[in-house]
Design goal:
CATH architecture of the domain at 222-433: 2-Layer Sandwich
CATH topology of the domain at 222-433: Chloramphenicol Acetyltransferase
Order of helices and strands: EEEEEEEEHHHHEHHEEEEEHEEEEH
CATH superfamily of the domain at 222-433: Chloramphenicol acetyltransferase-like domain
Distance between the termini: 63 Å
Number of helices: 8
Structural class: alpha+beta
Oligomer: single chain
CATH class of the domain at 222-433: Alpha Beta
Low-confidence stretches: 83-100, 152-192
Shape: elongated
Largest sheet: 8 strands, mixed
Length: 442
């Protein structure tokens, strides 16, 4: 027997709540086999393919390309193919039906039957109904669709899905086109208004749009505060130079300055629970106090998010689980894996979920001070800025040139105040300045 199978929006990782349909790859009325790719979907962190779980006929999309839908939302209905138990003769022969059945009566068919027939270009008056009094049933329509797919009768043409988001795919992409399209945008400038004579409107990818929506929510819902400390990076650089060859020999991975920062600061965060926590609204919402007010949740595990800029555009945050439990070699391997995987978009969806604290290597982009926004569900993010040589006061009133770096922390003021945030920053500064060629690292 045939049946309707609803294809829902999947969860792209354990913590995903919604995703965007980038584009539909098949049209209504197409016959699809189990495992066929039917759509592309994306969150602000990862993209994936939507595949059909059964053989059958694709219905009209319930969520259009470019729309956002929560996990579990029905995206499309597939009319599953019936098991053939004998010859299928769904279409009436010339001159009328044979045997006890006759051509279907559209006025006596159900709304579902009429919708399926219309979506698939099947004239009801040419289908032999197997129901009472020749009524056309859903199984009759499915059998007719299958017959059309086998070439028994050419179906009426079905209008293609509107695909304003799809256009020519120039290859190779120029840098400007790469920005406009991103990894999955498939957008052309002709799809958008041209703006005024003084401006040009650039289309953006669904990934960029998802990032924008999430950041707007983060800024709107969370009271952020910001602080900065200066760190003398002399010992940090000496430690890197001293251990570089050993780490490469043991792991095959380059030891970078940021690797040491990740390794050292993971241990500092683990001693400051509020930095590894998040705010949870109570049953009364965010504005109430007392039993109905919010709570602070602190985690027993440190899952370190690493902000990574993708070459084609977009910022993603893959996660190093239990980062404070890794030795230096394991940290170097894990960091290389998540950064390379994020840049090449080869990490699985779950690799981007579960961060409890985030580090951002903004110094790699030449920044000396920044105010990053903590990802949703976390209380803080720290930016490691560019190391710059400058004159500083040392040993009393002496002036010396030192490699200096800024650590910038943005934090959720609901979870902590300046006292807790600055205490963490001072410990972070001491941890980095305390490194050296002879420092024991575990």
């Amino acid at each position: 027997m045939a049946g309707e199978v609803v294809v829902p929006m999947p969860a792209l990782g354990a913590a995903s709540l919604e995703a965007t349909v980038v584009r539909w790859l098949r049209s209504p009325g197409d016959y699809v086999s189990a495992g066929d790719l039917i759509a592309e979907i994306v969150t602000d962190k990862v993209s994936d393919d939507l595949r059909t779980p059964v053989d059958g006929v694709l219905g009209t999309p319930l969520v259009l390309a470019g729309q956002v839908a929560a996990v579990g939302t029905p995206l499309v209905v597939i009319v599953a193919a019936i098991a053939a138990s004998g010859p299928v003769l769904p279409l009436s022969p010339p001159g009328g039906g044979a045997g006890g059945g006759g051509a279907g009566d559209a006025s006596r068919s159900s709304p579902l039957v009429r919708r399926l027939a219309a979506e698939n270009g099947i004239p009801l008056n040419e289908v032999i109904g197997s129901g009472p009094g020749g009524r056309v049933t859903k199984d009759d329509i499915v059998a007719a669709i299958a017959a059309f797919r086998r070439g028994a009768v050419p179906p009426a043409p079905f209008p293609p899905l509107p695909r304003s988001e799809e256009g020519p795919r120039p290859s190779p992409l120029s840098p400007r086109e790469s920005f406009q399209q991103g990894a999955h945008a498939r957008i052309t400038m002709a799809s958008f208004p041209t703006g005024t004579s003084h401006e040009e409107l650039l289309p953006v990818s669904p990934l960029r749009q998802a990032i924008a929506a999430n950041l707007v929510r983060a800024i709107h819902d969370v009271p952020h505060a910001w602080t900065l400390v200066e760190v003398d990076a002399s010992s940090l650089l000496a430690c890197r130079d001293d251990r570089r060859d050993g780490v490469r020999t043991r792991t095959g991975v380059a030891l970078t300055t940021f690797t040491l920062v990740v390794h050292a600061l993971a241990r500092v965060v683990a001693t400051h629970p509020l930095l590894n926590g998040s705010w949870r609204d109570g049953p009364g919402g965010s504005a109430l106090v007392g039993d109905a007010g919010g709570r602070v949740a602190v985690r027993r595990h440190l899952n370190l998010g690493i902000a990574v800029a993708r070459p084609g555009g977009g910022l993603v945050v893959p996660v190093i689980a239990d980062a404070d439990q890794l030795d230096l070699d394991a940290t170097a391997v894990a960091l290389e894996r998540v950064v390379a995987g994020a840049r090449s978009a080869t990490l699985p969806p779950d690799a981007y979920h579960g961060a409890t604290f985030t580090l951002n290597n903004t110094g790699a982009l030449g920044s000396v001070a920044s105010m990053p926004i903590p990802p949703a569900g976390t209380s803080a993010i720290l930016a490691f800025e560019a190391i710059v040589k400058r004159a500083v006061v040392v040993g009393g009133d002496a002036i010396a040139v030192r490699p200096m770096v800024n650590l910038c922390l943005t934090f959720d003021h609901r979870v902590m105040d300046g006292q807790e945030a600055c205490a963490f920053m001072q410990d972070a500064r001491r941890a980095l300045e305390g490194l050296g060629s002879g420092t024991a690292l575990h």
